[in-house]
Amino acid sequence: MELAIGIILGCCALGAGTAMIAGIGPGIGEGNAVGKACEAIGRQPESKGSVTSTMLMGCAVAETTGLYALIIAILLIFVAPNYLVNILMKFIG
Amino acid sequence: MKLDKTIYKETAYIAIWTLIFSVLMNAVFLVIKKWDLTVLWGNLLSFASGVLNFFLLGVTVQKALNFEEKKAKNAMKLSQSLRLLMTFVIAVVGVVLKCFNTVAVLVPLIFPRIAIAMRPLFDKKTGKGGEISGNGRDDSLADEPSDGRDDAVDATETNGEKD
Strand pairing partners for B138? Predict the structure, then answer.
């Protein structure tokens, strides 16, 4: 029984850690976008307003991937273990 | 540092739409008869977190635009990590404390993304979308010269008149 609960907790933690790999991507993507925007503004300083606005939205969209991963990780850490252990208890009796 | 008005404008847009979606979510909770104060508190916590996250993103973007390319990249990576950490802490507080409903804390974190996805539809209706015309240029930029060619043509004509 303890072994089964241990496996469930371990797998949940492993899954949460794996999900958070997706948190790396948005940082790199946003960095690249802002870098290119800096270049663009350097070439055409008068377009700063529109570039900022578009990029802000782009960055927010890119960041959502990280937020999805965060939500999955939180669910796996705090919600899934109780739920799965309850199912196990019912199954074993 | 004085903040650009674009940031306030975009944050206000996100805040308004997140608020609308939050009200809708509360309505759904009411309809399924699972609404209580924990839903409201959780929703408020998540709403504040989402809007603050977007505002901080805007501030970082404005700062980063004044840096050189490599420094801007690093600033954005650092900012993203810190904001993700902030969101994580807020979400964990919302999930662990019993005075917040878990679903009401986690679901509004996605609302800004939905608001951004809806933006093109909203802009098309109000005519702000800047539709691309047949020549491939954005019509919203019609008053501005697309490149230096217009000026170059004028200069040539002027020179021709002089000759």
Answer: B132
| A32 near B CB under 8 A | yes
Alpha-helical runs (H) found in chain B: 5-31, 37-64, 69-96, 102-106, 111-126, 149-162
- Burial label for B99, CB within 10 Å (0-12, 13-18, 19+), is exposed
Tell me the whole-structure pTM to 2 decimals: 0.78
- Note the pLDDT tens digit of each residue in B96-125: 998 999 999 999 999 998 998 888 887 766
The verdict on A80 touching B (C-beta cutoff 8 Å) is no
List all residues 6 or more positions away from A25 whose beta carbon is below 8 Å from its beta carbon.
A62, A65, A66
Which CATH number applies to A2-92: 2.60.40.10, 1.20.20.10, 1.10.760.10, 1.10.10.60? Answer: 1.20.20.10
Location of structure tokens 């420094």: B71
Tell me the nearest-neighbour CA distance from A56 into chain B, angstroms: 6
- The 10s digit of each residue's pLDDT in A28-40 is 888 888 888 888 8
Whether the complex's predicted ipTM is more than 0.85 is answered with no
Q: Do B106 and A75 touch (CB under 8 A)?
A: yes
A61 near B CB under 8 A: yes
B7 close contact with A: CB closer than 8 A: yes
d(CA A49, CA B12) in angstroms, rounded, equals 17
Whether A57 and B57 lie within 8 Å, measured CB to CB:
no
